[in-house]
Amino acid sequence: MPIESRTRGELPGPGPYLARISNLLDPTFMGSVEVTLEKGYVGNTELQSQTYIVQYLSPFYGVTSVLHEGGDQTKFDDVQKSYGMWMIPPDIGTRVLVIFIDGDVNQGYWMGCIADKYQNQMIPGIAASQDVHITAEEQLKYGTKYLPVAEFHKRSAKENTNPNTQLKPIHPFADRLLAQGLLLDNIRGVTSSSARREIPSMVFGISTPGPLDSNGKKGQIGYEKKVTLPVSRLGGSQFVMDDGDVNGQNELVRIRTRTGHQILMHNSSDLIYVANSKGTAWIELTSSGKMDIYAEDSISLHTKGDFNLRADRDFNLEAGRNFNIATVTGEMNINVKTDFNIITDQMKTKVSGDYDLVTGDTIRISANGDINTSAIGTSAHVSEGKFSIGSEANICIGANDEISLGANGKIYVSGEQIHLNGAAAEAPDNATPAEQPIALNLYSVPQRDASTGWANKNFYKAPDILSIMQRIPSHEPWDQHENVDPERFTVEKTDTKIAPTVTTDNGVVIEAVPSANTPYPVKNGPAGDRGTLKGSKFFWTTDQPFLTKVKEVAGYLQFNPIDLLAIMNLESARSFDPAITNSLGYTGLIQFGKESAGRLGTSTDALRQMGRVEQMGYVQSYFNKLWGWPNAKQPSPTLGNIYLTVLLPAFRFAAPDDKIADATDPKTSGWYKANRGFDPTNKGFFTPAMVEATVLQHKREVLQALSNAGVGTNLIVP
Fold first, then answer.
1. For the chain, first and last CA: distance in Å?
2. What is the pLDDT of residues 616-666, one digit of tens each?
3. Which CATH fold topology does 17-67+79-114 show?
4. Nearest alpha-carbon partner for 600 in 623, 618, 575
5. Other Cβ atoms closer than 10 A to 550
């Protein structure tokens, strides 16, 4: 459609002229806009007759020649092909520079946009700033004042004030970075890429306007007959090429969409990062050669050919639930040059056909319980050497048919009572017990989980994972990105077989080789730390990894660590056994119930399989996730506050003398009967003060036990 012709007085020349966009035209006008001229040709913006239609002048555009069009309009080869740069149109009110060919008002073009004074903070990367309008509640929500911002409010700004220090509103993109876990990350999340960062700006790029905010601010648009339409935008996608600030930081190329999908190539931190908008999946490649991948749901790979994986060092696989391997057809082959170790609570093997076991040396089978073998067919045991059968109890040999006993040499039978007496029978050899396999090192690896919440400086912090691996990617903000501490996450320090790691008899770990994470003492059984060392019990006061974890959890919850130990001393019947279970099924260090365990995403059965250190992560989640500690209402909780959170959480903030359980009250008499020990003088009720008095005795026991072991309140084992 041709541009509408209008009759106006001749312009003094082609221009250029300053103009302001007064209306946007539909796509049939090829990016043309209506403008009102400024500087001597100011028209009435209320009258459409005083405006000019100017076409879009692209910096780059091309099209194949119409002379080469074919005759078939349905074929790709027979039509023109267009290409070029298309960045239009800007919003109504934007100032532009226009020209008119030979002064002809019907041949006008807009050739560039003029920025409003000081209104370019958001270009091109929606940069962050400390100069932000923020409430106390918002600061608790975000945990920082360095946030993505919009432009400052120009109408309220005083004359001659520094535009760079003007407070600006928080950009909604801050909430997207919060959801991704990148709000505190100055590399993958917030950015300094702004046209206002330095003079001259070293930032290059493009940001799109983004869609109109249909739920946002409305304005009157048009001429004689105005209509009400959205006039605010949600922010758009960004393509940023940043040559870095004066300190050489933030040198990068970034493509990021309005909702937060991004591809980042970061020169300053020497990494490539790809993530989705929700933060539920990301990939990172580092300069040292690491590739870290995180997926909140699943990672699926399929090939119709071979699938080959190789690691020149260790190949570690770990499953939080089941580990399944199946072959659709064909064989399964495992070749190991040295030892092949399997450690498990139970092991079952079923073979439909023959089962062959061949060894080039000795076979040893040991059991702390019974050994049973049975066969429907013949059971044959042949030895070319001596064949010994011995027992400290009876030996019984029976058959439903004949028993044949023969020897090419002599047969000796002897016993306390002689029935077939002769020379003394030779004693059988004792069996050599099987050598125990060595358990893998276990490490406490940090993790983040969005379900734990961001506000109040939680920052998605979740209980550590007890793992055979040293680095496990998690939801952002992941603590173990290589750039956080490159020297800590070297190949040598993340070796899963850090050696030598010496565990003394009292459970103290002595590391000869630095490690990215503290390795825990190897304990008996695959469940890890279960309060035993080398197959024997060891006391909690000498379990340094456990005491260290107690301090960490108490610090997070803002509890006194001795108070936390006192509660576990009471609840675990002084055993600190993570598997201890009472007659009602309550389990572990603080006696988790089935309901509480389920709300924490686990079960009492699973908790019983955990060690002290691993279960402490669920102790933290119980107090934090279920009952809101740390709590602004009680920033310095008492021993009673803490224990009532375990005993009767609804009364954790009750006044010291409140009756929380009364034998005569139908609502609370059951609690009283189940916990009569808190009423030693038989008053018929108990209060928070009476509960605390009982727990205080356990606190004294804890302090005495620590003192006996030479451990102070710093919980460091000498």
1. 88
2. 999 999 999 999 999 988 999 999 999 999 999 999 999 999 999 999 999
3. OB fold (Dihydrolipoamide Acetyltransferase, E2P) (2.40.50)
4. 618
5. 24
